[in-house]
Amino acid sequence: MTPPPLPGSRDEIRKIQSERKKLAFERARKAAWYQGKLDHIDPGKLDDPDEWSKIPIIDKDQLRQWDHGTFMEQINIAPPEDISEYWRSGGSTGKPVFYPRTFEDVTYGLLSWGRSFPCIGIGPGNLCHISFPIGIHPAGQIWARSARDFGVGMNWVGAGTAVPSAAQIELIRTIKPTVLIAMPSFAIHLANLADAEGIDLASSSVRTIVTSAETLSEAKREKLQRVWDAEVYDVFGMSEAGLMGAESQAHDGIHIWTDLFYIEVVDPETGKQVPEGEVGTFCVTPLYTGHATPFLRWNSGDIVTYIDRSASDGIHAELFPMIKHASRTTGFFKIRGVNVNHAELEDFMFRNPAVNDFQGVLVTDDSGLETLRLRIEVKRGVDAAPVEGELIKAVKHTFEVTTEIERLETGSLAKAFEGSIKAPRFVDERR
Length: 431
Known about the structure:
Helix 5 crosses helix 7 and helix 8 packs across helix 9. Strands 1, 4, 5, 6, 7, 8, 9, 10, 11, 12, 13 and 14 form a 12-stranded mixed beta sheet that branches. This protein folds into 2 domains: 316 residues, Rossmann fold, CATH 3.40.50.12780; 97 residues, ANL, C-terminal domain (GMP Synthetase, Chain A, domain 3, 2-Layer Sandwich). It contains 14 helices and 20 strands. The relative contact order is 0.12. The radius of gyration is 23 Å and the shape is globular. The protein is an alpha/beta fold.
């Protein structure tokens, strides 16, 4: 497939949205779940924000109440002969959902993932090493397939659970890809494992890292850039829609392909769109990838802000607005009445260049009280004793809790994390 050209202007995108919203709305009316839920909406006024906001928002919690057969009865509108494949929902908690995708859905899925390459600046002459699972979750296999249409080389490597990390490091050293596509935690894991073997991946051929599927904090970005000596780009997508956008060179947000996806940032209480720059819940209506599952106003659960213009140059910045993820609490340890946010502790540890890797563990001390234990690996060639002392002081000052330090041999955590797609960075070992 030769990818179609980008729209000529934002005005053209608005026309596309107007036309495709009507088609998406008509498809949704065929689904059993939407029966009776759209009757009060005027299909001739879908460009009116007040009319559009009357459409009920749908999210994954509603789908997880059903088994697969019920889901297909309630949402799917495609006959069996039109279904090309199924995409597994993302996320690490709850029951997964399997979405049927028609042949036309897959064509536009390939386009949505493939657009990330020129937006980031990856083109002919680049070779990518992809470390996402190659299977029913679309990120790995669709992303890998899309590279061919954009003239980009691709090594279909897969996750560390399928191809051991040591073998992935050897592939990188042998075949010399210029781009690594992986979850941020796995890219850090590879660098830590390599360092334990005396291999410096900062001197490898990889000059660009593309991450997805996890929150990329600034601390994670800084650590990745430091240990790989590579520029880091983030992208954003979901199985319910496709790969929806990517960063460009200014790294000031993720451009969303708004000709393919109609997006809203809404107040979770009212369902109304919030002004630019204000925090809200991200909702998307796929305009081209909804032939089997015609979702309208899908609530992804992401908390974001909408940004109309990027500081980047180029056609992607000119055409496409951006979203930026807002900080939010996704997990914490409660230690003697003090909440220690996992994301904040992770950022704190990643910013310490003397600490190669770490794991936060909630344990019970001899008196029966909760205690934070930090298992750490100190960077090779660094005196461990002062690092441990300074870390205890810094944790107390920053998080107002006392911590124990357990120093591990270099490479211990990398080996322990080897069997996990996502590193178990925080564990509860209370007795």
